[in-house]
TrEMBL record:
Gene3D superfamilies: 2.60.40.3500, Zn-dependent exopeptidases. The keyword Hydrolase applies. GO terms for molecular function: N-acetylmuramoyl-L-alanine amidase activity. This is N-acetylmuramoyl-L-alanine amidase. InterPro entries: AMIN_dom, MurNAc-LAA_cat, N-acetylmuramoyl_amidase_3. It is an enzyme of class 3 (hydrolase). It comes from Mycoplana azooxidifex. Residues 260-414 form the MurNAc-LAA domain. One of its GO terms (biological process) is peptidoglycan catabolic process. Keywords: Hydrolase, Signal. Its EC number is 3.5.1.28. Transmembrane segments: none annotated.
Amino acid sequence: MKVEAAKRRSAMHRLAGVACLLAGILAFVPGPSLAAETDVPTASIPADVSPLVAYSGRVAGDDARTRLILDFDKRPEISVHYVANPYRILIDLPDTVFALKKDDVAARGLFSDIRYGGMAAGRSRIVLTADRPASVVASEVRKEEGGTGYRLVVDTAIVTEDAFAKLLSGQSWKDAAAVAESRPVLPGAAADDGGTFVIAVDAGHGGIDNGAQGAATGTHEKAVTLDFARELTSALNASPATKAVLTRDKDEFLSLSQRVQLARNQGANLLISIHADTLRQKDIRGATVYTISDKASDSLAANLAARENLSDEIAGMPLQGEPAEVADILIDLTRRETQAFSISLAKEVVGAFEGEVKLINNPHRHAGFRVLTAPDVPSVLLELGFLSNKDDEKLLLDPAWQKKVAGLIAEAVQRYRSAVMANGG
């Protein structure tokens, strides 16, 4: 046992040392700013702190031309951008409350999917996804006659591939945002002095990205994950010398890379990402713990990872490149160390759940989840259950069940900590 403990402490020291070196190198490696992924020109966003309210809307047209109409309580200021693969029109707005009925702006005509929601930092977005290249050909805001509201009318039409390519190359919003060098900060958190065990608790989805939807209640996954993440944070913070922090503490969108960077910026010792997905097989239920791997353990894990990795695409984010080649060797080294610790944590969580929480068959699985790619932070993705299963959904919405499961995870984290960080490791 002493030999094994010594091996664990040695591994942790190697991981810490390589992580520090990696951080130093990455600080000098040019790469895309996280702000570049979501920022739009600030001149298009009014300073009014009171959010807009979109209270009704409709979509009409065919597969050549489609009109989007939205009614607001105040005059909206919009900016329009385009993203390829798939073809998307992004309509950016100031902070907006979408008080729309489910079918008000259902996808039709040119558009195979229409999503809307918050993008953080006082911004909201509408994402129009098309099967063919399309663009906005006209837009206007009309004041409601005899009333106080305003109507936004956006006309779209198909364009050629060449025309769409010109729209992509001609827009300047990404360039304008790229000059910002700010990095995200965990809400309400201060940098740790190194003497505390830090856990980043990541509530999956948020803002424009609703995630899965409950079979019985229609509850969005983003609400389930945030409720549970808050409960888990409280349970973890009850442990001595432990600080748990949320990557998001409200209904806002964070890109997958932002979630990873938030954990790293805080010096997190662990990242736990919370999810509650849906499956076509509604009889499948139970919790699953995922770790990262280049090769998926099975088709269920592969399909789930593919869906979760679409989060940025859903929000209209351009795909970002991998870190510069100069850091690849160090990243690979730290990933090997980190993956071993991630697997250790996953086993502790599965062990804590056995006999207490319903588990899926083979509850520890692995796949290429982008949210688990921090090279120096052991990370797991926890599927609490499946919102497609009514029994799971009922438990997921039960505060007493959430409290119980959060307590079990907190105990598992403490056992993990004791095993790999004993004696100041």
